[in-house]
Amino acid sequence: MEAVAVAAELRSADEAAIAAIGLEALVGKAGYALAMGVRRAAGRCAGLRVVVLAGPGLNGADGRAAAKVLRRFGATVSVVDVGISVLPACDVVVDAAFGTGCSRPFEPPQLTGTPLVVAADLPSGLDATTGVVQGRALKADRTVTFGALKPGLLFQPGRALAGIIEVAALDLVLTTAVEQVTNDDIATLPPLSEERHKWTVAVGVVAGSSGMYGAPSLVAAAALRTGAGMVCVATSATELSLSREAVLSPLPAGAWSVLAETTFARCGALVLGPGIGRAQDLRAQLEGLLHASDQAVVLDADALHLLGPVNDLASILSRRSSTAPVVLLPHDGEYAALFGSAPRSDRMQAARALAEASGATVLLKGPTTVVAPPDGSKAYVVSGNPSNLATAGSGDVLAGICGAMLARGDLPGSAARTVALASRLHAMAAALGPRQGLVSSDLPAFVAEVLGGGVNHGR
Q1: Which of 166, 208, 381, 445 has the maximal Cβ count within 10 Å?
Q2: Which stretches of the chain score pLDDT less than 70?
Q3: What CATH number is given for 183-451 in this structure?
Q4: 2-176: what fold?
């Protein structure tokens, strides 16, 4: 996991560091780290022509400190102040105009030629919380960010503007409320117990309906490939291409709540909703099953529409006798249907707001996924989700992965951490597939390949 720091957390860490070593020493550390970032970006310092665009605050001070280091290493460096309209010709531009404290639109100067651009902390004009650009921004080839990652570097358009991101910790002592899940976190997942049997990791699924027979198939296949030894599917779908390993049963004609004591009794987690339809009589059935079950539950797709709006969902969940976690997997449209408005630019805050209002863990899907727990504790981001995931059924695969991960019961930390790991696994599986033409039924096999160690790990 990588720390992701918001402005208040960074400010507190900066103040502590300044009290301990002084402002000049802290700026010197940042300047040295920035100069080394330039060296890595360009491959050398000697003979390099560098222009530092320096602002009036600490970001500018970091740029000026970097200029001193680069000169010592043989670069020719010019420092220009913000407000210049055209930068002189050079090999590298260091964007040290404005950092996390930027509060007004930024209008960058025109570049001469095609120099590399290295940003200090974050590209100037970028909102450190949301990734939204105020005015315009210079697209960086590399960003040397100080202390920890900023949310704005992980959400678009900030992520695309930042280029290669490297974190210079500067020995800051940070306690952050957000972490980014990396590929390495998947590589270090504990193996399943050698003493397991097929019911050790078991998932119950209510999915599918007439014309929506793909959903239960995808959920089941994903759960099985994630390590579930048993998947029990209850469905009203009449046509199925279900994995032969899954156990199939029709939905009870009476109350679905009986599933809690029969088909799903030995399951560790339930996945409810994909493709079940939105007939209003299904709401009471879902409520009954939620109240009768004592497992972790993933609510997705049609279940989110049936149980909303959020106040109704919160009331339903508050009457649940089990303390096992409930996880919601909304995309933006489902979020809007639940919450009454679409997520705004601050997607971290949006996920936290829905989690608090509903009493459930929220996995808000997108190019950068956010996972927030209902109690306001540690949240997680999964950035860089491949665009080939934007295909019908990929959400059903994610639901199956989440169900299997929750059913394990042996992963440390919160449900939020567990489903954040599931989201990272989902993205890694997609990255193994073709950039174009990936279909969701391809994904479960790639999930198994990732878990089997068949990919290179890293951020």
Answers
A1: 208
A2: 239, 243, 454-459
A3: 3.40.1190.20
A4: Rossmann fold (3.40.50)
